[in-house]
């Protein structure tokens, strides 16, 4: 897997010094953390998306959920229709800052087995998403 290049790369660009800000794609769909798993899956199915950025009531990004994660939770024996995204995302993170290098982000994603990583600013607002290509 390699990081997906979301913007044209200038000739002679040094990949070791490219940052998450340079490589990210638009933040995409953002949903509130009080949304249920069923509603989140419906949103993903209606707007073909592989992931959703989850934000709290203040607009601070608290994490990212994938369709695979939500489907696994929905299909589990412990699932009820009251499970909210905040219960799945838990705490904050992991995230990349705009100044994180692409190499650092790719290493972190491979280590944590993540397909996507939100890029957030200093206040926690989602700026975009880094994604690994398959």
From TrEMBL:
The keyword Nucleus does not apply. InterPro entries: CBS_dom (IPR000644), CBS_dom_sf (IPR046342), Diverse_CBS-Domain (IPR051257). Residues 31-70, 95-130 form the CBS domain. Keywords: CBS domain. It comes from the Bacteria. Gene3D superfamilies: CBS-domain. PANTHER family: CBS DOMAIN-CONTAINING PROTEIN CBSX3, MITOCHONDRIAL, REGULATORY PROTEIN. This is CBS domain-containing protein.
């Amino acid at each position: 897997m390699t990081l997906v290049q979301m913007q044209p790369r200038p000739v002679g660009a040094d990949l070791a010094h490219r940052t998450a800000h340079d490589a990210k794609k638009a933040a995409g769909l953002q949903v509130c953390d009080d949304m249920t798993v069923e509603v989140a899956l419906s949103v993903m199915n209606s707007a073909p998306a592989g992931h959703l950025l989850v934000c709290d009531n203040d607009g601070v990004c608290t994490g990212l959920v994938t369709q695979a994660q939500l489907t696994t939770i929905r299909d589990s024996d412990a699932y009820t229709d009251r499970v909210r995204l905040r219960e799945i995302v838990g705490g904050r993170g992991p995230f990349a800052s705009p100044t994180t290098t692409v190499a650092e982000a790719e290493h972190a994603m491979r280590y944590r087995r993540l397909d996507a990583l939100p890029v957030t600013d200093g206040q926690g607002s989602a700026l975009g998403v880094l994604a690994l290509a398959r």
